[in-house]
Design a protein that fits this description.
The chain contains ten helices and 13 strands. By secondary structure, the chain is an alpha+beta fold. Helix 1 packs parallel to helix 2 and helix 6 packs parallel to helix 8. It is globular and about 55 Å long.
């Protein structure tokens, strides 16, 4: 779709655009600072409207955090099926989003709504980043250690929820994970001089890792383990409870993946599209122990997932553990 558009002259103030498939655009202004801009909205992933609002807000904010930035303002995006959803439900969605934005210290300035056959909600977010702290897909260097800051499997569990196969305790755990901001992970990444980062969302871990590897000209060697996944994810994946986006991710990004073949459930989980997933951080090896300790102090779940190396035939090399 984009390939048919005419080439345009690039403004020198544009530091990051779509060419590196990053999480947000970055535009230089002032002395040593830059604006970070993003937009994200989606259909409901949980039944509770307030929780849906919180998740949509956390997910939109994540793109700014993934760039090492601090979100400042947001505009609401709301698509409403006419005559099918009452104002009390919409009010709860908006309240959830506002509460999460307030937690992040972000001012919601307004927004835009339209009628649509399917409910969708999210935000356009503007933030600021110090240029020397900017994180992007293109910053990873050979020797960097790769750190993941949330467990995987939200797509599989959300699909199980829609099918009535998820218990109350699992639903609460899933919701708690998706409403958690990536602010602490981003602050720690900047503090310890990370070279690059991305958030793990709709393209799954392998998709976003491949984009980071391609933009940086490296190969990421990843060592998947069972502890990377939320409880029940691998069992549900083995039973065929997977979202449609997972299969599309596997088809598109599969050729970028080489190395040892993991079990089928693990491979499915690595391609699982995430909602409000964690960050994938590329950190210099000597600083990674400090980063992991800082994440623990901030009560951020984290694992060292692998390392970057000089480019080989594949963007991703999986290593059996």
């Amino acid at each position: 779709m984009l390939s048919g558009l005419p080439a345009r002259r690039r403004d020198r103030r544009v530091l990051v655009d779509q060419s590196t498939l990053d999480d947000a655009g970055v535009f230089a202004f002032g002395r040593g600072e830059a604006l970070v801009q993003t937009v994200d909205f989606f259909t409901p992933v949980v039944d509770d409207p307030y929780d849906y609002g919180q998740i949509a807000a956390a997910n939109a904010l994540s793109d700014v955090y993934a760039m090492g930035g601090r979100p400042l303002t947001a505009l609401t995006v709301l698509c409403v099926p006419e005559g099918r959803i009452g104002p009390e439900v919409l009010r709860e969605i908006l309240r959830g989003g506002l509460d999460k934005m307030r937690e992040a210290g972000v001012s919601v300035l307004g927004g835009h709504s339209v009628t649509d056959p399917e409910l969708k909600f999210g935000y356009s977010v503007t933030g600021v980043v110090q240029r020397r702290h900017l994180l992007s897909n293109a910053g990873t260097r050979p020797g960097d250690r790769i750190v993941l800051t949330k467990p995987l499997g939200t797509g599989v569990l959300a699909t199980a929820l829609k099918q009535g196969r998820l218990g109350a305790a699992q639903t609460r755990r899933l919701t708690r994970l998706m409403v958690t901001l990536n602010r602490g992970a981003a602050e720690a990444a900047v503090e310890f001089g990370a070279h690059g980062a991305t958030d793990v969302t709709g393209f799954g871990l392998l998709g976003h890792a491949a984009q980071m590897a391609d933009a940086s000209g490296v190969t990421l060697r990843l060592r998947p383990a069972r502890r990377w996944f939320l409880p029940g994810v691998l069992e549900l994946a083995a039973a065929g409870v997977v979202p449609g986006g997972l299969r599309r991710n596997r088809e598109f990004f599969g050729p970028a993946v080489g190395g040892d073949a993991p079990s089928e459930p693990v491979l499915l989980g690595l391609h699982d599209p995430q909602t409000s997933g964690g960050l994938l951080i590329a950190c210099p090896a000597k600083r990674t122990p400090g980063l992991l300790a800082a994440l623990r102090r901030r009560r951020v779940w984290a694992v060292e997932a692998g390392e970057a190396q000089a480019r080989t035939a594949h963007a991703i090399e999986l290593v059996a553990t």
